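Quarterly update from the structural biology core.
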Amino acid sequence: MKKIDKALSSSPRNTGLNFSNWTGQLIVLFVKNKFNKTIALGTAYNILHRLNYSKTRPKKTDKRVKKKTLENFWSELNGLLESKDEDTVIVYKDEAIITSEPTISSV
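Predicted structure, tokenized:
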């Protein structure tokens, strides 16, 4: 379990798998490659649970956004939120995102 936990704490690419995020199927493949053992997908999810990992999807980010611009935005927003008084009302507008990237993923 310690070897699996160590592998899960970094990118699958570090273990020779050409993927960015761990999934149940990748854990099955990793165990097969590393230990020459076949496990079921349910067992992979049980391993995740026992190691206190949760199933989450990676957050989408626009590839055109510059990292520094995003950091400046969050810094400014946090400053505004910290400096508001109790009479302040925060209004926000949510925008729909149209993308050509798939939004369905399995874990």
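The radius of gyration is 20 Å.
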